[in-house]
Specification:
The structure holds two protein chains of two kinds. Helix content of chain A is 66%, strand content 0%. Chain A is mainly α. In chain A, helix 2 (16-38) runs antiparallel to helix 3. Helices cover 42% and strands 12% of the residues of chain B. The chains are: A mainly alpha, B alpha+beta.
Chain lengths: 191, 335
Amino acid sequence: MTSDEALMLEFQGGSRAAFEELFARYRKPLYGFFGRRLNNPERAEDLTQETFLAVIRAASRYEPRASVRTYLYGIALKLLAAERRKFLTSSTFGQSASEPKTDGTPECVLWVRQAMEKLDTQEREILMLREYEQLSYSEISGLLRIPVNTVRSRLFRSRLALKSYLESEAKTNPSLRPSAGPPHSGGRGVQ
Amino acid sequence: MSTNRHLIEQEELMAYLDGELPMDRATETLSHLDLCPECRALAADFRGISQELMAWAVEPPEVGISSEINAALDERLQKRETAKVSSPRLENRVMTNRWVWAGALAIVCVAVGLKLTLTSRNRNADRSPAYPSMASIEQYLMPDRNAEIAMARSAAPDSISHDAAVMVLGRQGYETAIEGKNGFVCVVERSWTSPFNSAQFWNPKVRTPACFNPAAARSILPLTIKRTEMVLAGWSKAQMIDSIKAGFDDKELAAPEPGAMCYMMSRAGYLNDAVGHFVPHLMFYFPPTDKSSWGADLPDSPVTLNPQFQGGPEPITEFVVPVGKWSDGTVAPVM
């Protein structure tokens, strides 16, 4: 399988097929990135397409020092920040940019969203970049411009907070919890 | 949980589950987990949280590349074509002026010479680590036998490795540490299972947990054991290659049995300096086989031909298929 970086270089060299392959690989992850952060499918799709537009416009400036994955999420984070700024300045209805649309959403997803909402903003971002975008600590550190140790400690805090939330919810409202079972369902441990 | 009672801190345990600990610390963590129910419970909690978060799946609508992107693509590619067409003219103009050309060449020569002078002192520091010869045996051994057992077992999900035999590396070669019940054998391979011409062949950091199914335990594992015995006996690469060839000629070594495969799903391994932990994967072994029969290395194919035996003395073809989860069930990074 051709690496993302090789595809990007091929695209720089004028290959449309290389771009289409990158689009096929990253459209879904990028849509997920925006979809989870904005809870607005239309804007998620728009911003996904805008990310690729930015790639096309800046293709000549890409250097293979950074992985394509980090490069794309770097663009996505900038677009997201701009979107949030735009929303804050234009909103007159007091509605949060990330207010979830709950119609038809399964309970287990609602639970995850509620749990996420309770986290500190940057801790939530770090957790999402790790869990959903599967970025390494050093990639997150590079994208958010914070030390790797800070990434690790904030990730730790956010996971402990989720664990605590999960346990309290299990006690007070067992029906809301998703089907994954109690926190200790992992079996014999790491082997 | 105090750090006095535990060899690892909670935060390190989390980093271990994320595949973010250096190999030596990951090995210690793995070993500690085997002995500490409290840490196992916390690890299970962390894994449970990750699993619950995965419930939030976001599916994009079925649309392709937008017309706006297509237009931008057309524009960019057209610009490139235009630049290509126009650049030869510029080149011709420059080429016609030999004084310009000679002057430019002189400037390049001076610049290159200066650059070489300035960087020569740092050249060794910039070079990738090389392993020209075998390091001391201590560097390849794992001092903690339980840690090696735990690492070997981490090659496959517990449902497989729990009843597998486990072999560990000693000074004389691999020895059986635990008898198995299901025909599988788990080991931690060292660098010398790399191709003989690999720069990593003597890399003492390499630890490759592998769990062979019964067919591979009979036909592939003996190759690892033989290579190890020869290495520990101090044989040269040429001697090892000759011996392996002779082994196959004399039927001392067998072709891969049908169905031979191996699990390599450990997050604690270190495969080489280029890929580190790599991604969890399965390996399938055959007598020499055209890679096209598996669609290996074709665009979008998840199957790749592993170079481990390519051009080597073993008449074996090995295919690699990445999988989405580590042996402990956690989601692995995308390759």
